Give the backbone structure.
Amino acid sequence: MQGWVTLALLLSLGVKRSLGQNGLGELPVPRGLSLNPDLPAQTLSLTWQSDSSLFDLEIFHTELMNVVLNETLAVKADPITGLHSWIWHSPFPLECTSHSVRIRARNQQTLSQWSPLQTIPGSDIPEKSESYMFPQDKMVTVGSNMSFCCIVKEKQDFKEIMYRGQEMSATRLSRRTYAITVINLPASANTGTNVVCCSRLLTLTGAVVFVGYPPGDEGLVCETRDLASAECSWKKGRDTHLRIKRSRTKYTLNGRICRECLEGKTWCNSKVWEDNWTLVARNPLGTVQLTDSARLADRVHLLAPANVTAVEVKAWSATLQWSWSVAAYKKLEMVCQLQLFAHELSSTRNYSGPGLSSVVLEGLWPDVDYTVTLRCGAKHGFWKWGDESALYRIHTKMDRPDAPDVWIWMDSSNTGHVFWKPLSVRKSHGALDRYEVSQSSAEEDWGTPVFLPPGNFSYPIILNSSSDITVAVAARNPAGLSQPSTVTTPAYRADSQLSVSELLSTNGSFDLSWEPNANASKGYVVEWVPTCCTRLCSVDWKKVPESDSSFTVKSESLVAGERYTVSVYALSTGAPTLLQRWQGYSQEMIPSQPVSELSANQTGSVVLLSWKATEMKHQRGFIRGYTVYLANAAHLELIANISDPEVRSYRVKGLSLSLYKFVVKAYTSAGEDAGSTVAIKMEMDTADMLFIGILVPLGIMFCCLILISICCYKKREWVKKAFYPEIPGPKVPGDWSSPQGPLDVKPPPHSLVHIVESPEWDFTKEGLFPVPEEEEEAEDDNNEVDTDSDEPALLRYYNQVVGDGSHSNQVLDSSGSSTASVGSTQTEITYAGIQSPTSSQGACGGGGYRPQMQSGAGPAEPQNEFEADFQDDGLNTGYKPQCSWQLDSPEAENFSGSLGSPTSVTSSQFLIPESSEDKPQPSNTWFHNFLSGKS
Amino acid sequence: MAGRGTNGRHGLRGQARRTAALALLVHEECTQLLELYRNSESLPSSPVDGSYLVSIPPLVPQLSDAEKISLLHAALKECLRLLEDVITRQDADFSDEEDSEYRRKRKTVRDRLGHLLASTGQLLVDGQKFEAKVKEELDGQAASGSFGLKMWVVRVLQDLVHWTGQTSDTLRSLPAEMDKAPKTMSRRTRRGAGKIRK
């Protein structure tokens, strides 16, 4: 069944469609299309007739036939007129160009033919050949979007459209029309915002747009000043930015034009009070309505009191009078507020009454300038204070001063000062003329007062007797003399006589409390004085009622870093009695000066540092101790912290010999002072010096001697052999005994051998020549022989001296030896008249000994030369040696080993030949032997 | 002639020099005033479409100096009237405008233009005066709204610049011929009056 129904529907639809396509039953074309433009609103109202209710609408820019709108509309006919109407809002002003409209009916898929085009002409038609811009003088709110069009004059080119001086992107709408759209318009300047259309050469046309805000006024309030009329005011809201006259905000109050507002005022008057008020503020961009409702009695705003005057002025009061400019005020129950200004202080007093016009000002102070201002308001239904009167000045009269606050401070047992505090304006009651000070004692009644100028606040007193003195101080001004203040001298008590407690401050103040005293019938006096003060001290005090036993000395009256002596006295009919005394600092600071007289004394490796305490006036706090530092190159090394301030010395131990710097700082609870520095160079003691300088070297020498002695003892055999060898008897064949010991030849003074140098000496001749004990001396420098000695030289004559190794070498060269012999001194020995040696070659011959002429070969005469000597022996006619040198051993070294061995004066042969066991050692190794222990 | 009677020949020449200097000064200030107005309104510097509002016969060489001065005097007179109109219209429409540099300069130009007018008036001979033609386009401009008014102000200021410049140029080229002015002046003035005077 359902399938048949569906098929029937499809068939019917297909039939209808085919009917439409075939033109059968075509919808009628809408008739009577008319266009009604609203140019300021940029709207186009369309009306037409048709039986349909669905239409297709097309709107064109006529010249270029650009489609502006193509929309299907469902518009029902008006039941009365039978007309269809629809309003189109154009994005551009309708004057910009011509618009054409056509419409057709639509019924489902069936369409009618388009209606004929209906056109509304724009301003760009040829009949209007001038330049134009639209819209003109439009007013819009800030943030709006707007489109402007420029119609260019015939035969003029188009260059640009500028908005606020900036070129905008333009769209062409027709042959002569160009348009721009500006979004989010900002507020205009005073004369609006200009949109200018230009050609390449000229400014063609333009428009002004005023961009602003609707009125923003608020807070309408109406009140009465004269209890009859109304004055309504409000606050102007934000700037509308609409300056042009026709766009300014216009106001009406309860329907009446506000005349005051035309002058820019924000208030409006009404002659009659109305309980309800409505203010309407309107400008081209919008309207705001403000309302206010109130009864007249609740909105009374009084005018200012007029003609304020002081009719009666006294020392402590004055009567003030004024008048009202509105008669109706006289019956109004009002409250008035009076403000008094004196010495930058102000006070407010309220008075009330019907039609208030005078008040009595009580509680004024004498001789004070007051400035008065007055304002009033309705007491019932108070709305606000009325206007203030003009300032009025009152000067009160003088009165006698109050009694000054007096105290005596004793600085010794018989001297002191009377102090009194300056009288404030409130207490002097007029400018003071003088102070009058008088005193009495048991012996003397009140005498003639001493007059002191008003700038004096102390007077010295001297106690001539043991009795107390009572001092009276009074102040005088033009109005009279004050009551005298009396005080009796308290007994002087030095700090040393009391147990002075240390007083700690609290936030810079001294909180004092003491045991109540039964004798304090007139209360107590708390006195505080700088402890270090000696003369003209700033004594301060405060009188405390007898009911109190505590007091706080405020920090304002104390100086930080100053030590104060605080005393509490009990006041009675007699002299004040000292109850308690403290010393303290309101705020401790670090000492202003370091410790003094810091010294360092060395005792051995200990340094004793000692110093003196900082003066009290420089302490600026209780000294809690001292710190001792060792100053290094860059920092201070703490070596001691002395927490007892009475200890003012310190021993630094275990110091080595060096330079030390010590810094000693005193510290308070606030910290350390800058510190004093002392330097000391550690030196040795005199005893040490003696010990090290004298005894030690002596000891070392002694030890060396002992060692040498021991060595010598242990090596005595060697020593003996080396230095004191036994001279063996000559070994001769046969029995030839000879005495032991060297054969020293000492020429007697009367038989000296005269040795004469003879350059012409025949070197072939052998002769005697002296041989020094020391081989080196003989070898190197024969001139070193002491020629000035008076003693006859002990001469040992060798005809040959065995040289050292070098000489041994020379021995191998016979020619060299010969040359050396030639080079050596040629000595001629004579045996007559030799007094003393005259030259190195000169040698004293043995007494009575007459050596034979012998070759003058030097001490290093080589062996070969000796052989030559033998060969030349035949030539010699003189002395023949007892035993010619025989080469016992082919080794030349054997000769050197016999150095120091006695030799025959007549022979170069050693007298004691070396045995096989006592093989001779090289002469240059004797010390080595000595050390090695060989003998 | 009134000026001559008191100043004499040398006095007239000096008066012409002073007037030329004043005309130059006013010309410069008018230029500044136009510039200030364009800047304050963000208007382009291109001239406004249309001819000068004030017109006089061309200052052809055939005219004597005195006639030229008379013509320029007439143009300046209309310029001053237009400037005062501008001030009136601007103050009426934008009375809330604060004291701006443009307003101060506008007042200065008005005052000095009055002095220039008086000064050129002293150079006139026999009290003969021409009248300039003025295109009263204000109403037409005003019809196009506030922008029309602004364009009219620009045109007035352009006229001020133009005619004060013309006056300055003319007066500065005068001194050599000032001595002959009386004769030619009276003759040509009478002859040309019928043509120019309205």
